Amino acid sequence: MGLNLSNKVLDKSKILCREPFFVTLALSASPDIQTNPTDIVLILDRSGSMTGLPLEEVKSAAKTFIDIIDEATDGVKDGTIGNGSSIGIVSFSTTATEDSPLSTSVSDLKAAVDTLVAGGNTNHSDAFKKARELFDPLSTNAKVMVMFTDGKTTVGPNPSIEAALARSLGITIYCIGLTGSGGIDVSALNDWATDPDSTHVSIAPTPSDLEEIFKQLAANISKTGATNIVIDEVLNDEFNIVQILPPNIGNASLINNTTLKWTIDELGKTTNEGASLTFEVKYLGDSSGVFEVNKSIQYTDDENNIANFGSPEIAIDCTDVIVVDPCPTPQNIDFDNCQDYLDYDLGNYFLDNLGRILELSLTIKNVCPNKKVALAVILNQVDDLGVETKKGMKIISVPPHNSDVCEDIRLTNIKFVLPEENGLLCQKRRYAARVIANYIDNNPIC
To answer: What percent of the chain has pLDDT over 90?
Structure first.
């Protein structure tokens, strides 16, 4: 079945300047459909929010999917799905309908798709149940569900139960979501789909994107598992790779601060298989805005599969940042040429960094122009009974800004030194932090 799905996801949609975040690359692959017959059920949302263009686009996408599977199963686009594979159609709104049983007739399948009419609520549970009932439990064919939806569940039982039952029966579930008027619950799609989520869930921002997603999924389902995979990921210059976590399959290496290479010998040769790689990234710029993280990503394998990881964006907030406790000024120590020993006195050093160090940061929201702010951070230690003991307080004077509008002010590097107590090291310790802030002048500009 080839490369089924490729994806790239960020663990955060918005960060502050210099704040790290994680990026995950993922893909899945399965054996060749010609030698591994597969029964596929398309589950299509026809609720009221699909009225108009969304339903027309999903009909077109579903028919393209059927054509690709038709040609892939026997090497010719002849109107018949060959070599033991088949496709069924289930649609759903308030309830689900079997629009076509598992069939090899392309014309019958397309006719079933063309009859769909939008209206009603969204019952995902009944859709999964009806789709599961289309499969022959005695068949040795691989079994796949492709769930398409544009909204959240509004009627019926919890769909997670039916989706879990399908997965337990060996059915692979892919979920395609459209950002529609009903809103998409991505966490629900992740829950329903086969793991890993990143290779079995895809979101279409607009109806026009559906054709490409269905086309890619069908094209890759029809190919053999992938071998000698090479993925070259290059980030935009404003981002740096901090670290690469070991992938679950294959090997990844850092080429430079913005580039990594991920290689996989084979994926999905004998069974459906997913691979994922996560790496940590940091933004080094100083401008706010919405930025694409990667400059380019290239995929190759011996089977000429097509991978489309997308180019996710992240919103970055670079508000004014005030460093409360700056790092101590270093003293420079120089060795002269050929000098092999140096005795250097660093001077007096006060014991202000014994024990653990807690570093806090916070953002003061909507600070008006030309107004000073006084802020106090109060830190108490909490014992097992919930009793608090005072441990420290920082009083901070925040200088005014001269912008034309109220702005957020970011405070960083607020440090508390927490000595170890009673000679016991590495104890678990719990603290409660409180913040009090107010203006300390009477300038009524705001």
So the answer is: 44
